[in-house]
Design a protein that fits this description.
Blueprint lengths: L2 H5 L3 H28 L1 H4 L6 H31 L2 H19 L5 H4 L2 H31 L5 H27 L3 H4 L6 H18 L5 H8 L8 H7 L1 H11 L3 H16 L4 H29 L1 H22 L5 H28 L7 H25 L8 H20 L17 H7 L1
Helix pairs in contact: 2-4, 2-5, 2-7, 2-8, 2-10, 2-14, 4-5, 4-7, 4-18, 5-7, 5-10, 7-8, 7-18, 8-15, 8-17, 13-18, 13-19, 14-15, 14-18, 14-19, 15-16, 15-17, 16-17, 16-19
């Protein structure tokens, strides 16, 4: 790598920009998830039984259908014209679609046209989210020093936790409103507020220059005309590996969305279930960088596998605690399950996945692999609800579902090469691992 490119590395600024961008994107994404669990069944769907909740969670899942399509499109441009330009676009698209959701009429006003409009806006959110984490992770990884890539890229997902905290905090006063206010204009306020945070993040992200690795690839004519071709030719095994690892994200949607509905079913106050999300994510703000630093010392694979298996082991105890009535126990298990279990895998995957690919296809490889895998996360609430996971005793269904996806992700991770000691410019090259072994 040239001296000029090296001196232009700005890892802290890149991490801050990724944190803020992810916080905004996933504030928007998570307020939809909270509303799908607590508001939309009453506003957009006519049924008063479990069918309304299933349909509401289905609208949540529609974004995950759009995300693989968005991954191909945004991944192409991210590897062709640069990470920073695409990330500005994803930020503005998410902000616009979220604001429009806050303006939509309900079922009482326009009938079935209301959920159709909701789905269209959700699809726009999905297209945006398809490029956000892959782009932000690629940008931060390529700005980071070789020995701290996992630490700096962990801030992309820590921003995601920040967005979820903000979303839950804003929804807590909303659910406390009288029904006539909550279901008329009260639920709209969190969606309108996204315009403010989008503006702040846009200003920060706009000031960040393109990554040295991409600029060097561009200068040497190594940018692929159609990144999908070399990706599928040279990295198809890594794409499949990322797909199966990425289904671990289903733990997050179970914890952050499905558990809200289950907690309400077993008698917990809506505000309490939201506080569980807030507290667990606040603790994760500290534990995720810690897990990222650990991965820089001992490797990506052991930390990721630990996070996956810990999620499977702890989820039954967390779900059972919701029926115990012991509030301190519920909070303790929420923090243990999410902040000290799932957070390990969540913090490490940006470096773990990104380091499987070379610079010329990194954005596309991460985006396509993760977004196909994330389909499981998107449909997790719908699948588990349809199987009876939001009824009394549904903790068994939720726990088995979590265990299955966690074990699949862990097995897939074990097939990957360890890339902790591979220099950034050698990432994604087939001979890099052999060079390390010989050394």
């Amino acid at each position: 790598m040239t001296d000029t490119a090296t001196t232009r590395k700005t890892p802290v600024k890149a991490a801050v920009a990724s944190f803020m961008g992810s916080a905004v994107e996933y504030y928007d994404f998570f307020i939809f998830g909270s509303a799908a669990a607590l508001i939309f069944p009453q506003v957009f769907f006519p049924s008063a039984d479990n069918a309304a909740l299933v349909m509401s969670f289905a609208t949540f899942a529609f974004a995950y259908v759009a995300r693989p399509v968005g991954a191909v499109i945004l991944g192409h441009f991210g590897d062709r014209i640069g990470r920073q330009k695409v990330l500005l676009f994803t930020l503005l698209l998410m902000g616009l679609s979220t604001f429009i959701i806050g303006c939509l009429p309900g079922f009482d006003q326009v009938g079935w046209f209301a959920p159709v409009l909701l789905v269209l806006c959700r699809l726009m959110q999905g297209l945006s989210a398809a490029g956000e984490q892959a782009g932000a992770s690629s940008l931060t990884l390529e700005h980071a020093p070789d020995d701290r890539r996992a630490f700096f890229t962990s801030w992309t997902l820590t921003g995601t936790q920040g967005g979820q905290i903000l979303a839950a905090l804003i929804f807590i006063p909303v659910v406390a409103l009288p029904d006539e206010i909550k279901y008329s204009w009260g639920w709209r306020v969190p969606f309108w507020l996204s315009a403010i945070v989008v503006l702040v993040a846009y200003i920060i992200r706009r000031s960040l220059h393109e990554t040295p690795a991409f600029e060097e690839a561009k200068a040497h004519g190594e940018v692929a005309r159609v990144p999908l071709v070399p990706l599928l030719r040279d990295h198809w095994r890594d794409v499949l590996r990322v797909i199966f690892c990425a289904i671990i994200a289903g733990v997050s949607t179970v914890f952050g969305n499905l558990a809200l509905a289950y907690g309400k079913e077993v008698g917990l106050a809506e505000s309490l279930t939201l506080w569980l999300v807030v507290v667990a994510n606040i603790v994760a703000l500290g534990t995720q960088p810690m897990f990222g630093r650990l991965a820089d010392r001992i490797g990506r694979k052991p930390v990721f596998v630990y996070g996956a298996l810990a999620s499977a082991a702890l989820m039954p105890f967390y779900m059972l605690s919701m029926s115990s009535g012991a509030t301190p126990l519920i909070f303790a298990l929420a923090v243990l399950t999410f902040s000290f279990g799932y957070a390990a895998a969540n913090a490490v995957w940006p470096s773990f996945y990104g380091e499987m690919f070379s610079t010329r296809v990194r954005f596309s490889g991460m985006a396509i692999g993760t977004q196909i895998g994330f389909l499981m996360a998107g449909f997790a609430p719908t699948i588990v609800t349809a199987l009876g996971g939001v009824r009394e005793g549904g903790w068994v269904v939720i726990s088995v579902f979590t265990a299955v996806i966690a074990v699949v992700a862990a097995i897939s991770a074990l097939t990957a090469r360890e890339t902790r000691d591979v220099p950034t410019e050698r990432l994604g090259h087939r001979d890099a691992h052999r060079e390390l072994v010989r050394a």
